Amino acid sequence: MSEPAAPPTGADSAFWAFSLRLYGRPGVPPACLALQDEGGADVNLLLFLLYLADCGRMLDADQIAALDAGTRPWREQVVKPLRSVRRLLKADVGAFTALSSGHLREQVKQIELAAEKQQQLTLETLAPAASAGQPAPSRRLAAASHLAHYAERCAPWPEAALHTLLDAWADDALARGQLD
């Protein structure tokens, strides 16, 4: 990984565009949620590892561990608490009904999304797609290797969710002529 540079804005973030495109594919949102909630995965890091594979880059286990360690404080201290509050507001909280706090929940959701986007922009500066790791012998191999290395750092992942995510990534890459 190279020296961190100024983060791109969301408007010029290729990773953000990749994430939106992949997350919009059928089955991906529930698969990501299962990998996050059941397997302890950081969805932004998962998507970033697939993005780097998509860009033809391959990281080793230590480089993936460094990305995880570098973003863990933000994830633990900012993203997860916001997610917890947003989820809490889906139900009644004492005398406050879910209906009455719906507007607040939407505001928290927007802040959570902004925090997730900030994490993505930071990942791009920590490991720029043009120079991260090494050139991959194949994108498919890089994706499998990245997720295998990251899975070692998490709880067991639900297999069906993992396959759904990988299949969606492969379908997307194939549709763009990027799968080798």
Keywords:
single chain; 180 residues; mainly alpha; 7 helices; elongated; disordered N terminus
Summarize the structure.
This protein has 180 residues and is mainly α. The chain has helices spanning 14-23, 28-37, 43-54, 61-88, 102-126, 139-151, 159-175, and strands at residues 57-58, 134-135.
Give an overview of the whole structure.
This protein is mainly α and 180 residues long. It has one domain (10-175). The chain is 64% helix and 2% strand. The chain has helices at 14-23, 28-37, 43-54, 61-88, 102-126, 139-151, 159-175, and strands spanning 57-58, 134-135. The longest helix is centred in the middle third of the chain and has 28 residues, at 61-88. It is elongated. The two termini are 24 Å apart. The relative contact order is 0.22.
Rg over alpha carbons: 17 Å
Strand order of the largest sheet: 1-2
Reported for the largest beta sheet, the result is: 2 strands, antiparallel
| Total count of domains | 1
**Number of helical regions:** 7
| Unreliable residue stretches | 1-7
Number of strands: 2
Can you write the helix and strand succession as a string? HHHEHHEHH
Structural class: mainly alpha
Gross morphology: elongated
Strand content: under 5%
Give the helix proportion (percent range): 55-70%
Mean pLDDT: 94
Spatial separation of the terminal alpha carbons: 24 Å
